[in-house]
Amino acid sequence: MGRYGVFGSACDPITIGHLVTMEMVIDRRKLDGMILVPSSIKRRDKGRDLTSNEHRLNMARLATADNPKIQVNTIEMDAEGWETYTYETMKKLKQEFPNDELLFVMGADNLQDIVSWHKGHELIESNCFIVMGREGYDMADIIAKDSFLIKNEHRFDCLSKGVNIETSSTLIRSRIKDGLSVRYLVPQPALEYALKHRLYQ
Ligand SMILES: Nc1ncnc2c1ncn2[C@@H]1O[C@H](COP(=O)(O)OP(=O)(O)OP(=O)(O)O)[C@@H](O)[C@H]1O
Ligand SMILES: O=C(O)c1ccc[n+]([C@@H]2O[C@H](COP(=O)([O-])O)[C@@H](O)[C@H]2O)c1
């Protein structure tokens, strides 16, 4: 039996923030590996159209190719219609990895919202989570202010970041659009791919 993190991200594009978060969580919680799940283009809650599944998946694969502990999984990209919610993803992944323990990994910004996600209560009551601190989010305070989170506090393993990399995909897209450098913020092979395909210009 292994212990794996499940890290969901739009990966539009994948950044060193995502990569360092996955690596730190694997290392600090002695996980056997991380399952990186890029979101489906069918997601409509990001307030904008995502880059195509194919391009985001290719960048995620290029960025993680040198790390044997990170496996990219297309379960959400392959899902039909609205089956792209985390509740459904975790249910299906548990069927795919019946002998392993799976922990959903997220940044502290998502801790604030998770109760309102699709089937939020069922999602929380049937999973365990590793939450990585982010600038401006007090994880203990977020839990203390929500009675449902308090009741399920034992399910949330909150990690202070230690290594602080506050970059985001939004920042990367905006800098590329403005002709500014994002060197070192996105792993070089993924960045070359994005520039070659003019994804964010
Ligand atoms: N720098 C970071 N440190 C810790 N967690 C992060 C960081 N960037 C993103 N995350 C977490 O990664 C997950 C995926 O987030 P997402 O794909 O929205 O990244 P993002 O870079 O914030 O994207 P966008 O700017 O497009 O919203 C979320 O759980 C988020 O909290
Ligand atoms: O299931 C939901 O309702 C839900 C709502 C918001 C976010 N999520 C998941 O959380 C992960 C990070 O989302 P985001 O919005 O920070 O890109 C990603 O895997 C999403 O599928 C899931």
UniProtKB/TrEMBL annotation:
EC numbers for this chain: 2.7.7.18
Catalytic reactions on record: nicotinate beta-D-ribonucleotide + ATP + H(+) = deamido-NAD(+) + diphosphate
A GO biological process held by the record: NAD+ biosynthetic process
Molecular function GO terms recorded: ATP binding; nicotinate-nucleotide adenylyltransferase activity
Pathway where this protein functions: Cofactor biosynthesis; NAD(+) biosynthesis; deamido-NAD(+) from nicotinate D-ribonucleotide: step 1/1
Keyword annotations of the record: ATP-binding, NAD, Nucleotide-binding, Nucleotidyltransferase, Pyridine nucleotide biosynthesis, Transferase
Domain Cytidyltransferase-like, first and last residues per copy: 11-174
InterPro entries: Cyt_trans-like, NadD/NMNAT, Rossmann-like_a/b/a_fold
UniProt record similarity statement: Belongs to the NadD family.
Purpose: Catalyzes the reversible adenylation of nicotinate mononucleotide (NaMN) to nicotinic acid adenine dinucleotide (NaAD).
Stated name of the protein: Probable nicotinate-nucleotide adenylyltransferase
Gene assigned in the entry: nadD
